[in-house]
Amino acid sequence: MLLFFAALLGGALNAVAGGGSFIAFPALLFTGVPPVPANATNTVALWTGLTFSGGAFRHHLKIRRSVLLPLVSVSLAGGVVGAILLLRTPGQTFLQILPWLMLFAVLLFIFGPKFTRARDKEAEHEPSTRAIVAASFLQLMVAIYGGYFGGGMGFVILAMLTAFGMADIHEMNAFKIVLSTATNGIAVLIFIFRHAVYWPQALIMILGAALGGYFGAHYSLRLPQVWVRWFVIIVGCGMTSYFFVRAY
Hints:
Largest sheet: none
Radius of gyration: 17 Å
Strand content: under 5%
Distance between the termini: 30 Å
Helix content: over 70%
Order of helices and strands: HHHHHHHHHH
Shape: globular
């Protein structure tokens, strides 16, 4: 029940404001799943919620192929590298890295909106080849981080898209979901292939994350997002402090 409701809340938070990993990942650790399999299982579960929430933004995805294909390609490549790095990290080492990853993710969550506010409508809509190459390189770095841990990845993607010149926040969210789904989707395949997923826990959480992602996306505009953001920040700070104490 704990894992189901943690995934339900995590899936809904990812659809509304992000930060679902702050709920779902610690729940797996608290129920006895080792750190690396917990991260893999969490990625599988929340990826399902992300795909369900993506349907709500499908009509806003109006990205040119010249931009879409390179960024999706590097997202897939980065997801592979990040997932392999995770599986080759010893559990105790990952437990020591984890608090710093969570701190980084919390800071991204807190300060991310300052970098992701929609820019002026006159922002450039004809990206140059140099801009596409630069965005692809940045997205590759983001995808490696996403395949390895992924907390706060959405805010980094939004920041990159804002710097890239996108102005429509709904279009940015739709593109963010595509890139995040590609990154975590390829990581999910690697985790499954390498038998890193705890399936009894994963199946329960997939159901919860799917429900949370679907309803969270469809009802997100009705919720006071300031409250949601503060809830995620409080939980994230609490979990980060806990894992610092636990690791050191």
